[in-house]
Amino acid sequence: MTPGDALRAALVVLAAAMLQVVIVSSLTVLGGTADLLLVTVCCLGLLRGAVVGAVAGFGAGLVVDVLTLDTLGASSLVLTLVGFWAGRYGETTARGTRLPPLVAVGALTILAAVFATFLRVLLGEEVVAEHALVGALVPALVLNLALALPVSSLLRTVVRPRSESPSAAEVELVA
Hints:
Low-confidence stretches: 164-168
Strand content: under 5%
Radius of gyration: 17 Å
Structural class: mainly alpha
Oligomer: single chain
CATH class: Mainly Alpha
Number of domains: 1
Largest sheet: none
Order of helices and strands: HHHHHHH
Distance between the termini: 31 Å
CATH topology: Arp2/3 complex 21 kDa subunit ARPC3
């Protein structure tokens, strides 16, 4: 990843975190809200790999936790795992189709909700599991899936996929 790609990815993640906190989190549809940040981290992990996805998830979660004054590190942990898992999925599947963003966002939305609920319970916070895992998850899943393809297309234009990155010059071994 070139420094320019890293800067563009960081700016996209920061913009997504700000949009999530300021606008998207206040828009409720049928009891659920879209998670633009999860979709962004997931698509970035698909495009650039597990390490970039995990770093982006950690940074994005830290920004959200600081801005919302939530439990510091909770969102970071969840989004780090989302970025890593999306990156591993992207490294092991075909990148040419439009299906991987939908599959990854759908599966990771569900896994992130389960893991976040479990983490909140471990931290001793009061959580209504039925609301978090049933009532709010279904609309959030639909909204995240609706965001998956546009966010993936936007990230594909802003941050090049790993296969399109400039490669190192060919090296000839002389023996």
